[in-house]
Design brief:
The protein is mainly alpha-helical. The chain has helices spanning 6-10, 13-19; strands at residues 35-36, 40-41. β1 (35-36) and β2 (40-41) form a beta hairpin.
């Protein structure tokens, strides 16, 4: 079995994302305005999602700088 280089593992982007406890805040699923396909809108929604049907809960809203992200 090959040995793992701990520095390589800890500096890997996927590992960093998995270990970051606040990473989920950058996902559309954290937004109160996100429309879940099964549950619909949250009771805390203030607006309709501008990308309803185009994004899922794991979409990174910072990639397109969503103006309606609300948490």
């Amino acid at each position: 079995m090959p040995r793992l280089d701990l520095n390589k593992v800890l500096n890997d982007l996927e590992v960093k994302l998995q270990m970051d406890p606040w990473e989920w805040e950058h996902r559309c699923g954290a937004c109160d305005n996100f429309c879940d396909p099964i549950k619909g809108y949250s009771q805390y929604a203030t607006k309709k999602c501008p990308r309803e049907g185009q994004v899922n809960a794991d979409t990174d809203w910072t990639a397109f700088n969503c103006p309606d992200f609300y948490d």
